[in-house]
Fold these 3 entries.
Entry 1:
Amino acid sequence: MTTATATGRTSTSPGTIVPSEPVKRRRMKSSYPTWFFIPAGVFYVVLFLIPTIASFYFSLTRWTLFDVEFIGFDNFVRFFQEPQLVQGFVNTFIYAFLTSGLKVVLGLLLGVFLSSQIIGRGFLRATVFFPVLVSTIGVGILFQVLMDPFGGPINEVLATVGIPGPGWLTDPSLALVSVALVDVWKGVGLATLIYIAGMVAIPHEYFEAAKVDGAGAWNNFRHITLPLLRPATVTVVLLSLIGGLRSFDLIWTMTGGGPGFTSDVLASVVYKQYQAGFFGLSTAGNVVLFVVVAAIIFPLSWWLNRKGDEQ
Amino acid sequence: MVPRSPRRSIVAIGAGGLVLSLALAGCTAGGSDSDGGAVTLSYLVDNQEATVETAEALADAFMAENPDIKVEVESRPQGADGDNLIKTRLATGEMSDVFAYNSGSLFQALSPDSTLVDLSDQEWVDTLDENFVRTVSTEKAIYGVPMGQSMAGAVIYNKDIYADLGLEIPTTWEEFIANSEAIKAAGTAAPIVQTYGDTWTSQLFVLGDFNNVLAEDPDWAEKYTSNEAKYVDEPALAGFEHQQEAFDAGLFNEDFASAKYADGVAMVATGEGAQYPILTFAASQLMTTNPEAADTVGTFPLPGPDASANGLTVWMPNGVYIPKSTEGDKLEAAKTFVAFLATPESCDIQSETTAPQGPFVIDGCELPDDVPAIVSDLQPYFDEGKTNLALEFLSPIKGPALEQITVAVGSGITRAADGAAQYDEDVKKQAQQLGLEGW
């Protein structure tokens, strides 16, 4: 609870000290000379500000790298007209919410498990975190082999217990979910780590007090661990949702958006447009991606943090 | 299907720098045609090992016959880098004396009328296949001589299976389906092999059907380029419909969704699969992995509705061109060299140094006797003139998403008509990007 209120207070503090703002600004100015900011400022303008503004402009053009023709919002209209683009849009949300939800649930359970007193805890923690360290492309190629419907180890194992394994990556209704599961396997280590850190920060006094009151394991978890892990949960949800919305590398290595367009997400659609040389159209796609991520993450982040404050 | 694009030009600056350095080098190295009447020609080819090897062998043979002409082989990068280098050097008048480059839409992008030497008055022009001539010509003139062989988008099939079941080579789509059903009933082999693990292989039902489209409407390609003909309408829709029909009838191999191109060729070679629509450059894959099946695997065209129009859809070889910057003695020497490239002797050298993938497009050029049946089966269609060019040699428009669409149609995800409609939309983007009229 203490951490939650602390972060909440700092985030709202600029509003409360509005009257004293001029004073603060003058003090900041005096602490460093102006030239001190120039290098960072130049970097910021050249590497971030100009490309961002340029991309908004190029998204309104038909662009071959040599010729630019201004065509207004045609790119955006086209982007939302094509069925595969709409499907990519829907898939992006399915993928992001599925991976984010699973990472929260599994990360929490693994976090609780790995912060309890068990044998080989350090080793087990390292094992869970290990997939996070491996290259995504490597993981993608590995699971492409594991999930091969003919002779792939996963289906071979299923066959020995009499279950006919599905075409994990080739069945149109399964491909996206299969990739999402691999993404969860690869990313759950980070969620677990965040939860373990959150769990370690919970003062022991609460559990001792609860013990005196006669609370069982479930009550401990439900009324102490879970509420006090809210900041960790907020972090995991935001990180995994942002990651899921702009996810590309794993999907591209495992299915290439296929079969057909059934596992395409926004980022892979945008990539294919670049590949085909439709630079204006793909830049428009990136702008859409940017707007979508911002439109989801900012309100969500505000809502999650506000709920924390209320408690 | 040709794995390169004239559009991706990110490296223009790098290529430009390279051109500059080459141009500077040219200032010092050029102008050596004064020593005893000997002329030195530079011959620019792409830097693929096999291409360079062939070019060197051709140059050596030519110099042995023409002691007063010296040919020096230069190489350039492949793909978009090479495209830009060629365009820049042509535009600045610094091109090598003779150069090899793609035919068809990439050739047209060089604006040949203003950059290349007209070769239509040369004797060897009459010996060339007329389809090839179309891909190296503008309305005004003919500019190139072929380098390498043509290939076809066709069905490779296992001859043993056909012989065992007493099947005839199909000349209509109905016969093809009937054959496939017979193979399915026999139960030993997959009737039709599909390999969507490599998505590009899924396009053959559509791209390889183009001979049949042209048989019904000879002007289809022009109409297509000017936004009048569409894939949602017959005759072009047939390619998509055939793919859907074959899927619906359950004629594909069990692992069609995950198998790869190399698996597909191996399946036909070993008799696990009976028929596989693919490009005939599969001959080199076959000779690498299953050389024992060289005579077992043959080729026939993708059949259409009309047996009398049955013929091959053909992809053309590259051309060799002379730029306008080659003048005087050098131009005469360059014309002699190009004429040599159009001789049967040149063809023999080409097929010795690189494995043939299809017939030559020059009269009098014969493939060696030991070419795999995939390639030798094509020859009769060429001899009888039963060939048509693939769409990509007749129109600059090819949508980038065709392979995903054909995977979706061939996997039962999308219906043929919907797939064709999606492709028409895809093509629209490409046409607009190229700035074509009427889109």
Entry 2:
Amino acid sequence: MKTFDIQKIRADFPILKREVNNKPLVYLDNGATTQKPKAVIDAIVDYYTAMNSNVHRGVHYLSQISTDAFEVARRKVQGFINAEHEHEVIVTKGTTESINIVASCYGRAFIGEGDEIIISAMEHHSNIVPWQMLCDEKGCKLRVIPMNDAGELDIEAYKALFSERTKLVSFTYVSNALGTINPVREMIAIAHEHQVPVLIDGAQAVQHIAVDVQELDVDFFVFSGHKMYGPTGVGILYGKESLLNAMPPYQGGGDMIKEVTFEKTTYNELPFKFEAGTPNIEAGICLTAAIDYIEEIGLDAIKAYEDELLAYATDELAKVEGVRFIGTASHKSSVISFIVDGIHPYDIGVILDKLGIAVRTGHHCAQPVMDRFGIPGTVRASLAMYNTTEDIDNLVQGLKRAVQMLK
Amino acid sequence: MTINEIQDELIEDFAFYQDWMEKYEYIIQLGKEVPLIDEAYKTDQYIIKGCQSKVWLYPELHDGKIIFTADSDAIITKGLVSLMVKVLSGHTPEEIAKADLYFIDQIGLKDHLSPTRANGLLSMVKQMKLYALALQAKG
């Protein structure tokens, strides 16, 4: 394993030096979005300073270099998740759009009345609502994998959900609200025994865990740039070539066509078939810098460090009177969700903010998870590679102060 | 006291607290003093949408004046709704509908007025004015 120099890493993230409410920033809302290293910020500035031009269109020099850079990023992503082909990597606006593309296009072609889609009880709204919309339109049904009190999916119940009508399984790799790491390999294999394709929401996984889509044998894999130290407004839809080819396009427009007449349009090949219109060029290109940064430090080293920090944070928070953890799975990643007896999470969030500590409070776009635990929401501290034990100590001190005020 | 007299008094009260923590402690204290809504009205009908926490607000017309009662499951939010009730309750629908709530800015809670803020102070103000307009039309 490479050595993990936390001070050097922190120095790479300019925003970590700022103050909030006259206190040094303690940023623990990484599940919502991560901060960006200087390399990514520089790449964004470089793009507009030296390269800005539309992609896949012009014969002029700038258009050629921006197109090249955009395609370099695609290959970078291909390598990052070990996709077999670069055209299996579709550039989207983000995880949400990626899921909507599959719901819309795979759904349009392969899912009909009476068919069933399996999701899990711990999904983010963006992996629930697109399927509900499809169900409303097509008359298909959602089946939901239940979870236990620790926030772990019930695999036996999952097996029992399959029927002749099951057309797709879609669930998250890591829960944004609970931190649970699901046994994706095993769950994909189970779906494949029934010849059912699987979509994995990797939005909370790719920044913490090395992903190999071929080894997982996953059919669709989606994630966002902004949660992995990259720019906002860009995400990825990975799909197996055969599936993507069999799906109709998502939106019509420029770049996704081969030939257009008023009588008929022939669609472009992968990946462009799913990339109608001008993409977020800057963000797409700057994914390269984000992935380079992650790979330079190494996901194994990042995971080992974050796991240690998670264990430390869990131990320290457990010492605060009244703290109850929501999500105590045996396999967890960098998310600590908790409530304090008798205190609303919102109140805690307000006081922590005044102390310069950024956490998320509320239902984390996963209302069914909160309903499952019978709570209005949680306080969520979510870690990234630049967080430290001092950040955790500050959180614990801040929490004690908040509890004192709010009790 | 008129709405503006109450606002001026609150501005004076808050000026006394320099430190944000004291301000919040005062808001929390105000929350404990809010005239509580009858449990029977703690229904979806009287929930104010747009808050991360739940806020219930009930208006009642007494001798031409609106009396507000409220509650919230978060105590800072309860303090904020209490502030609004303190200022607006006991006035005529006309007075409430046209009230200029300058005190929010002056006591340093302007941040809380942005429509995207999770505490829904703006939703509270809107809802109270809507109730006033509705009761004005009735009266």
Entry 3:
Amino acid sequence: MTDDKDVLRDVWFGRIPTCFTLYQDEITEREAEPYYLLLPRISYLTLVTDKVKKHFQKVMRQEEVSEIWFEYEGTPLKWHYPIGLLFDLHASNTALPWSITVHFKNFPEKDLLHCHSKDVIEAHFMACIKEADALKHKSQVINEMQKKDHKQLWMGLQNDKFEQFWAINRKLMEYPPEDNGFRYIPFRIYQATTERPFIQKLFRPIASGGQLHTLGDLLKDVCPSAITPKDGEQKTQVMIHGIEPMLETPIQWLSEHMSYPDNFLHISIIPRPTD
Amino acid sequence: MAMPSSLLWAVDIFGRVYTLSTVGQYWELCKDTQLEFKRVSAVKQCCWGIACDHQVYTYVFSGDVPIRYQEETYENQRWNPVGGFCEKLLPSDRWQWSDVSGLKHQQLDSFTLPSPHWEWESDWYVDENIGGEPTEKGGWTYAIDFPSTYTKDKRWNSCVRRRRWIRYRRYKSRDVWAKIVSQDEPDQLPDPFNDISIGGWEITDEPLGRLSVWAVSLQGRVWYRENVCHHNPEGSTWSLVTTPGEVVQISCGPYDLLWATLWEGQAIVREGIDRNNPQGISWSIVESPSSENGIMHVSVGVDVVWCVTKDRKVWFRRGVNSHNPCGTSWIEMVGEMMMVTVGLNNQVWGIGCDDRAIYFRQGVTPSELSGKTWKAIVSGRESDRSQTGSSTSLLSAGCFFTDDIQNQTSAVIQGDADPSSDTELPTSPASTALLGAAAAGDGPASQADTSARLPVDPLHAEQGEATAASARNDKDNLDMNKPPGNPNPSAELQWINIDLKEAQKHPVLSVSSFADTSSLSSLGAFSVGAEDQYGADEHPLWAWVSGGGCLVDLHSPLKWFSAPSGLSSSVQSLSLSITPAQTAAWRKQIFQQLSERTKRELENFRHYEQAIEQSVWVKTGALQWWRNWKPHKWMDVRVALEQFTGSDGMRDSILFIYYMYHEEKKYIHVFLNEVTIIVEVLNEAKHSFALYTPERTKQRWPIRLAAATEQEMHDWLSLLNMSCCESRRIQGPPSHHAIWSVTCKGDIFVSEPSPELEAGPQQMPCDQMFWRQVGGHLRLIESNSRGVVWGIGHDHTAWLYTGGYGGGFIQGLASSADNIYTQSDVKCVYIYENQRWNPVTGYSSRGLPTDRYMWSDASGLQECTKTNTKPPSPQWSWVSDWYIDFSAAGGTDREGWQYAADFPASYHGHKTMKDFVRRRRWARKCKIVTNGPWLEVPPVTLWDISIIPSSDADDEEAVALWAISDKGDVLCRLGVTQQNPAGTSWLHVGTDQPFISISIGAFYQVWAIARDGSAFYRGSVSPNKPAGDCWYHIPSPQKQKLKQVSVGRTSVFVLDKNGNLWYRQGITPSYPQGSAWDHVSNNIRKMSVGPLDQVWVIADKVQGSHSLSCGTVCHRTGVQPLEPKGLSWDYGIGGGWEHITVRGNATEASRGAVPDTTEENPAASKEGEDEESKGKTEHSKTPLMVSESQELDRNSVNC
């Protein structure tokens, strides 16, 4: 009988095989070989690509190097989205490895945020956690923690330390016994086809009668187009961490077990492959 | 499994008594519904009430342990040359049948049952056990003359003899309301009662279960019921207590608070209540808080007093304590109540005056005794629940009313013969019209003007409540209309409960005519159905509530405040029945998809590089370390725990301690996979813990570290525990074979035995055993190899192991997510008040300069005053104040003093001429609340427990479990199986004296030790006969007083009070009691014999351990079928250990099964070894290294 804790491990240790190729217009001194890497689904691009940067900087001239940025099939990849989300949104159902193009010039100011150092990533990560806790517990749990606990969350993510991270994160996944779940579920729904970045609304995990809301209830409430089949056929896939959970899955369980380390449920709505 | 809970008692306006459990959600009707009640006053074990006949009744809960009282009488005989011993006695002799002193005449047949609520258990029989020694047949003891010392041996000069006859009577009226029968003379009889309050059980512990019962009679007099205690639940007589005025209401707290309300509106307070004067001495008067409105109702707790004045305002009395029971001033509270009641830990309930709902005072904490706000309890009644679900199917009101004309005149007015408020007692049948609204639903049009309204006490109408008034008016209207077929008045009679108005009688109407209504299915259905007319949310209306038996734990939430609507709960249950199938479906799909994803995304790409390399994780901190060299003291060090993954993927950890030694930086390191145990050490000043390895265990010199705060220490302990378990690949719960142990501090440790521990060519040295901590605080744990594990706390609560792991400070993934529950324990902290006698002032606290501190610990070396003595650690908190402990060993006088010639010596309770010093022990209770994999098994509190050791081959369903309650009763738990380790009920096994130790062996041999130190064997215990048939008295070895017995597969070992371990020789299948005792060793404080007949003990003093540390775990080596006593000792973890149980370890050696050796007579083959083993008390095969610091080490692990 598999334990719920195994889901946590599976989510944490998910990896995406990626092939990094340098943009052909970048000026290099030598031929730039593509670089293959297993990226953690739960982390952020700029956090885990030191090796990539080093690899390509070796073949480039110093003065040509400015801030690194990534794109996939023309779309600049937002580093502040988790890697797994980016893959599910843009490249799932494509052949592996995931081919990402590396740029060092012409930073697309309109599309991407700058990321000068790891501190920027840390600040963004902690801000997401705080926002999630505000939704879940009115920020009570996160505010009760000490600075060193916050640091431990970040270090756990940065160093890929599952136990270190969950030693603290489990506190953020608890709720008072008289409730049956969080106050609101921290989630964001992404659709590659729409203009706006994501959908985020207030959503309670427990109905007034005490029943648990499901993934289907959530989607029906905030993004009905995602699931109402037009002309009778389901055109979209609802994807979290590369899998398609049943719509009957309780949203409270999903939030506890399949959130990203920033405590948000990042859900991708993508067109269903026709084959 | 039953959860620990307590009950809130209440009476509704119809006189029905309900209870609401702290873990329940619905009011449950009291089991005995014969009577209607006016008042109830509850404590935990029973409830006293005044029924509508103004008589007092008591309701004692039934339990597994019966209430038995032993009656005894002595038959005395004198020897004369003619007839030998016979009943002809000298005229100066005592009676032929007498009490133990000989002064009272007590013939056998003069004993009668004190009341109809008792029954005799059996006939008279002779007691054949005197002072631990069995007497000859007939039970006679002989002496030279009356009175003197009697012995069981007849001597040449024994001229008299006597024998003791005993008979037990049993209280049988449990779970029913038992009327208190008055045996007083008619002129002494109290007049009918009006109010009752019970309490006072905390004043003293003697006799067991004593209660103060106070009652107020209709004429305003106060009566006290004498001698109410556990084995006399009804008390004996009423005695009158004079009061300065007419009393209308009284309230008694658990301790020494007693307040009463006078008719004039003041309150009176009883002064001088203590253990010598439970009735108190005098009264003081306290004025009402508001001059216009006198006090109407008062309720007291341990040290709080609440009152309600005539204008329904609620007041809290400030400044109440033991020295000043009157308090100082009143504070007004928000809210208007009819009455209030104070519960066990100062929690407060009230009945609202408008809606008659029960409110709970939220926010009452020790620092905020007046609480914050009133919250309504919305729990419905059990009977309602079954109906509300079908509320839609409820037939229309008309179905309850037929056209039968009920004869109103048959209504009997019970109780008062003189209904003074006859204004409200209509003589016409329509008086009942309370449920007229029910009829109004579709009754005749004449009633159409009545709308749904509350059935209201007509007396209420006087207080100007609109609803009451309208009800009354409507009622009057109804009274006028009496159409012939009017079902309304004929439907039923309701009787109305009394309001708090003093000196008012209430009309009591019976509901007997109910039975006449043929259209009704049942009383309950009707009333519920009728009330449903008011809406499904209408709550029951209450007249009285008593919280004296209710303990609301601030930690556990109550389910009283949210009403699950009947419909949704059924929907929920419906959805619950669906979801198991569904949860399986969606969860299965998630697991399936995740594994598919892993395959898809990883399988072909394992050769790719990882984006993040596995790095070494380091946790550093600053701690203090008890340094290795002299002078030993604490020094600041930096500590680092490094976790790294080796090349084979295995993870390992090292702990580094960096310190400065003479200006040089040095470090010591420990591989965590070598650490055998990490244990918290009790230390006054520091939060410290000790780290042991096998080597350090041998030397009794662990690494001692201390943290600045308790939280930091727990963080490190949790992390180190987890890392040790990881490096040994130990995860999940302990197996059924685990060995459990408890330290003196109460911490629980568990170890997985390897197969080589007990058998094999090379027995594993027990200093290599790895112990991990499990949450909880207990005094002892017993287990067996089928996974049934029970623990007993210091407060004698029984706990069942749930199969979890972790808990306590162990958090996160090292702790199981479920199966961890709150666990608490209460223990006493003792300090001593010491005094020395001097010719000038007698005993005083001024002693000699060399004396101990005048307030000290038991040894006298440490000063411990009442104010500076703190609970053992910040996790503990005080739950009582300092009280004089009269139960100190050696006895005390009436004020608690013990006398001796000098400090220290043995103390006795009476003062002699030679006693120049005296001391008095003060105790204070402290409580720890932690969590762990333990669930309480109420209700019996236990002293000892034993579970049958099984071998792996056993497939018996039932597991035999015997226990001893903290009162010394021997109990047998029924229904224990592997699936239900808590069992179902207790079976009481009768004994003639309290017992203190019990053990059951693998073949159902049950041995036990009684309080007088003698041993008993229970015959014929088997699965078909779980309680056996009778006790056989076994003489103890060499007149030693025994204190513990443990039976393994076939070996029986006992321990006496001087630390000697004895083995029972001569046990054969035909003679399971054995024949003689063999001395094995001394210096032992506790032992455990397991299913392989292995012997483990806690030894007192072991080489290398310091004089103050007690309790080292030792393993008897060389135990073989031919050598059951073993040969020598192997030393394990210690000191500081209190208890160990190895009865779960049935892992046999891989080669060769354990042979059946039960029949062998070991005595024959072991003569030669006896001398050897006697001499080898502490001789160890491995010489212990003596640590360099043998002197007093204040940081040794001690109790």
